Amino acid sequence: MKVVVQVSEKEKINQAVKSVMNLINDLGEELEEVEVVFHQSAITATIDEGIIKPLLEKKINVIACRNSLISQGINESSLVKGVKIVNSGVGEVVRRQKEGWIYLRL
Amino acid sequence: MKVVVQVSEKEKINQAVKSVMNLINDLGEELEEVEVVFHQSAITATIDEGIIKPLLEKKINVIACRNSLISQGINESSLVKGVKIVNSGVGEVVRRQKEGWIYLRL
Amino acid sequence: MKVVVQVSEKEKINQAVKSVMNLINDLGEELEEVEVVFHQSAITATIDEGIIKPLLEKKINVIACRNSLISQGINESSLVKGVKIVNSGVGEVVRRQKEGWIYLRL
């Protein structure tokens, strides 16, 4: 299965990443793809290598919301290498579900 | 596609409305219908014209949870004109998904 | 229909239980099964009889996340009788959706 994870709050970034790792350990081979979408105040995660690298190393898609980058005054050049940008995090979460991905809001 | 949006926390009302607007801008014509359900402490949004009018102007369904109105001591006559009431916000969110709507929890 | 409910935050336990009761009252016979998954800081609910018993009395499945129990230093023997344990709360939420359950994040 494929899972799209939404992370919205800055205060929950670390807990969310921990939960994503638990998800991977729990579901193992059942899990085909995982995508983590950071938006709203949680967008700051996408410029923090200590947070993002472990996710990328697990072959997780890491997505940054452009609207949130602009709101928070973060330059796209500051993103950790490997992070992809979408126009809106909410649009991405909705589109992925339309494609059949399972939704998890952390 | 059709999207049902759940807004639960008072502190997140403004951010949630901003995200709904971003969703509309991002998905454009792909989006057939959007419904925003305010419940729990976020129910207060439904008596605030400055918050609700821009949503109604975008042809978004705005829904108030009756249980939350009662909990917060808000009279139905105080609702912004155009807001619809359901017995429970959570019931609405579940029913919409049953009907095939995509879920977004802000 | 079948609904899987995710409760993540300790501060929201009481409100979440209230919403689950509202869901049951609202959907009535339409609702075949409800499962409430407590994880992250909300795991503490699973050792509190005053919170869990009313749920069990309504034939709701109450689930505790083992990862969260370990993180919070809660012994499995402290769980309210009738609570079931899964390896990870997020894995449970994803699996249930895969099985066709509707997702509600409180």
UniProtKB/TrEMBL annotation, chains A, B, C:
<protein>
    <submittedName>
        <fullName>Sulfur reductase DrsE</fullName>
    </submittedName>
</protein>
<dbReference type="InterPro" id="IPR027396">
    <property type="entry name" value="DsrEFH-like"/>
</dbReference>
<dbReference type="InterPro" id="IPR003787">
    <property type="entry name" value="Sulphur_relay_DsrE/F-like"/>
</dbReference>
<dbReference type="Pfam" id="PF02635">
    <property type="entry name" value="DsrE"/>
</dbReference>
